[in-house]
Amino acid sequence: MKEDIKDDDILIFDGTNILCGGMNITYKGYGYKHGHNYSSQFNELYAYSVRNRKPVYYKLLEGSISDKATLTDVLRESGIKNSITLIDKGFNSNDNITSLLKNKNQYIMALRCDSKLVPDEILKDYTRSKAKEFFTLQEEAICGYEVKDGNDRICIYFNSTIAGVMDTEYIDKMNRKVKGYEKENYLEAKERFGIYILRTNIETLDLKTIYEYYKSRFEIEYMFDTMKNTLSFDKTFMQSDESVEAWAFINHVSIILTQRVYSLLKEKNVNLTLQQLYRK
After folding, report:
1. Quick one: pLDDT band at residue 117, thresholds 50, 70, 90?
2. Which residues pair with 41 in a beta bridge?
3. pLDDT at position 165, please?
């Protein structure tokens, strides 16, 4: 796989879980699955090339291991360097930042509002009136500004479309008396609706380009959706580690071929999803 990893690429890191019904699998662990459920599974961590629209590296992980704990090992094993890496909230840690810098990688990292990597004074003093740049992306209105934190830039964005969606969802859950969506907390919660916080060490890009780069993460999310819901690679019942590894490799090749079809659809402006194409 290393021959597919090029310097100066834009790489997305993300992981997904695979349900595992095998009995003698050392990768299998009891891990968290979306929906606040726990299941018998293993994890796959992927590096995805934005420029080539395909995965260039994957690693099987034991089901209870978090993505955050494995990025340093993946960077060492894959030899990824001199690239722009796009990292979601689950990878936030100073150790991962250190590993990225050691390999001369630039990064754009999403931060939770309560992350320790967001200085307290930034959140205490956040206001849309500080916005310096205003732009639209995919018919969504966005404004943003930045502050320095050591050698990094903390880029703060407000997306009015997403804020409206979050507002509606909160009120709906509040009216249905969902725990954590209490009326007395609404006004405080509303202040953070639609906020994106990105941390980067890239000095040469404007706020809009940084945001656009990060939003290209939908490429790997689309790949995972295709992988699980179109190709049905969401679970396996293999009964040995060797069988799981072979299964994962065959799936990896299938995904590369599928992503090539996806790229051709984009290049030819064919208005079909992969799911629609397969049904035809």
Report:
1. low
2. 19, 29
3. 94
Q: Is the dihedral of CA 196, 214, 133, 139 positive or negative?
A: negative
Residues 157-187 pLDDT 10s: 999 999 999 999 999 999 999 988 999 889 8
Backbone angles phi, psi at 254, to 5 degrees: -60, -40
- Locate 257 and state its tokens: 């071929």
Q: Which amino acid is at 247?
A: W
DSSP 161-207: HHHHHHHHHHHHHHHTT-TT--GGGHHHHHTTTTEEEEEE---SS-H
Burial degree of 233 (CB within 10 A; 0-12, 13-18, 19+): buried
Tell me 216's DSSP state.
T
Backbone angles phi, psi at 272, to 5 degrees: -135, 140
pLDDT tens sequence across 20-48: 887 778 777 766 555 545 568 888 889 89
Burial annotation 184-209 (CB, 10 A radius, 16+ → b, else e): eeeeeeeeebbbbbbbbbeeebebbe
C-alpha angle with apex 224: 91 to 169, nearest 5 degrees? 75
Mean pLDDT of 58-87: 78
CA distance 15 to 257: 20
> pLDDT band at residue 246, thresholds of 50, 70 and 90?
very high
8 A C-beta contact, residue 256 and residue 55: yes
* CA–CA separation, 97 and 81 (whole Å): 13
Token digits of residue 133: 């740049």
